[in-house]
Design a protein that fits this description.
Shape: globular
Number of domains: 2
Radius of gyration: 21 Å
Number of helices: 8
Distance between the termini: 45 Å
Strand order of the largest sheet: 6-7-8-9
Low-confidence stretches: none
Strand content: 25-35%
Mean pLDDT: 87
Largest sheet: 4 strands, antiparallel
């Protein structure tokens, strides 16, 4: 005789980058097991893969490739909140010299926000010539195609910049980067001044992200600030 199946609740979650409404169910024990194995490995690529797979299983979405990184971060935190509870238990290290001990704290996922959500994607590089770029936010597909070592290299940063530029413009024309070769785009970036290049890298370093800020009392007795940015920081 077939065993009965339990009804699984359904929730509606808003996609941060577009406002689209997505249906979501909590993850199951078998899916949580895969996630826990990935977390215990402390391997960034394995964790990223597990997070992507569990989102694909629990949301009515066909692909994550075009979603921004902050979309993925937010969808996962909301999924976790509906699956195992709104509270997250973390171990935070004291920044005080001579302490350095870990203090257990509990945060509420409802207090997590997305910072820089209204970041201006238009970057004017040169006022005299009117040359500038319109940026896209890095997608999960883009990040997944770069290994961890390359992500932390100048070559990896160059690749992310090139992939993130939606268009280049001057006073007379707009140039769609989809119609330009990688060599032409590389050359454009390589011929920027240091100040112009920094405008683009500053944009990428301050893209929207899940964010939490508060304070706590360390077990040593001193009050400490806590600032979490990006999904990895919530796996502390």
């Amino acid at each position: 005789m077939a065993l009965p199946k339990l009804n699984v609740p359904q929730y509606t979650i808003e996609l941060p980058s577009t406002g689209e409404q997505l249906n979501m169910r909590p993850y199951l024990v078998k899916e949580e097991k895969v996630l826990m194995i990935a977390l215990e490995s402390n391997d960034a690529m394995q964790i990223s893969k597990a997070v992507r797979n569990i989102i694909m299983s629990c949301y009515n979405i066909d692909s994550l490739d075009k979603l921004t990184v902050f979309d993925i971060e937010y969808l996962f935190l909301m999924l976790r909140a509906k699956s195992v509870g709104e509270k997250m238990n973390l171990q935070i290290k004291c920044n005080d010299e001579g302490c350095g001990k870990l203090t257990p704290i509990t945060i509420d996922v409802a207090d997590v926000e997305i910072i820089n959500k209204n970041q201006d994607r238009n970057i004017l590089l040169d006022e005299k010539s009117g040359i500038g770029v319109v940026m896209n936010y890095p997608s999960m597909e883009m990040i997944a195609n770069l290994d961890v070592e390359k992500l932390n290299s100048s070559e990896g940063m160059m690749d992310i910049i090139v992939e993130s530029i939606d268009s280049i413009y001057d006073e007379d024309n707009v140039y769609d980067t989809a119609t330009e070769t990688k060599e032409e785009l590389d050359s454009f970036i390589e011929n920027l001044s240091g100040e112009q290049y920094k405008k683009i890298t500053d944009f990428l370093r301050n893209v929207p992200a899940v964010y939490y800020k508060s304070d706590f009392d360390c077990i040593c007795g001193k009050k400490q600030d806590i600032e979490l940015r990006g999904l990895n920081s919530f796996f502390t």
